[in-house]
Write a structure and sequence with these properties.
CATH topology: HIT family, subunit A
Bound molecules: adenosine monophosphate
Number of strands: 5
Number of helices: 2
Mean pLDDT: 98
Strand content: 15-25%
Length: 112
């Protein structure tokens, strides 16, 4: 099982902020911004580049959920960023797809 599957199964503790049929959202353990959440599909898709066309509704659901959570946390006016790291050059460390939601400070562009 991946780390995130174990969190979803409640084998490893995490601060779960949202859960539905397709995904959970948790606080990142090493936050890079005042708000740093991970939106994680329950299906252990490894990464975007290994997803299949049958999974497009899950991929879309992750983005939509990010927007809903941002609105719930009143981050939609100040702004927020959704990030997916795919592979080593992008900094992917957990091989279970997840969308980072970052907010609460001015975020640099281009990213480092
Ligand atoms: P990535 O580098 O894009 O694969 O992102 C993995 C993220 O998972 C990093 O931001 C880590 O800080 C985060 N992370 C690792 N272990 C945990 C954990 N047990 N609970 C919450 N977040 C975690």
């Amino acid at each position: 099982m991946t780390l995130f599957e174990r969190i979803i199964a409640r084998e490893i503790p995490a601060q779960i902020l949202h859960e539905d049929d397709l995904c959970i959202a948790i606080n990142d353990i090493n936050p890079q911004a005042p708000t740093h959440l991970l939106i994680i599909p329950k299906k252990p898709i490894i990464r975007v580049s290994l997803s299949s066309h049958e999974e497009v509704s899950i991929l879309g659901h992750l983005l939509w959920t990010g927007g809903e959570i941002a609105k719930k946390l009143a981050l939609d006016q100040s702004g927020f960023r959704l990030v997916i790291n795919n592979g080593p050059d992008a900094g992917e460390t957990v091989p279970h797809l997840h969308v980072h939601l970052l907010a609460g400070r001015s975020l640099h562009w281009p990213p480092g």
